[in-house]
Amino acid sequence: MDLLRLATAGSVDDGKSTLIGRLLYDSKSIFEDQLESIEKTSQSRGDEHTDLALLTDGLRAEREQGITIDVAHRYFATPKRKFIIADTPGHIQYTRNMVTGASTANLAIILIDARKGILEQSRRHAFIASLLQIPHLVVAVNKMDLVDYSEEAFEKVRLEFTEFASKLDIADLTFIPMSALVGDNVVDRSTNMDWYNGGTLLHHLEEVHIASDYNMVDGRFPVQYVIRPQSKSNPDYRGYAGKMAGGILRPGDEIAVLPSGFTSKIKAIEYNGEEVAEAYSPMSVVVLLEDEIDISRGDMICRVNNQATATQDIEAMVCWMSEASSLTEGSKLAIKHTTNWGRAMVKDFRYRLDINTLSRDMEAKGLELNEIGKVRLRITKPLMADHYDRNRETGSFILVDEATNVTVGAGMITSTE
Question: What pTM did the predictor assign?
Answer without folding.
Answer: 0.82
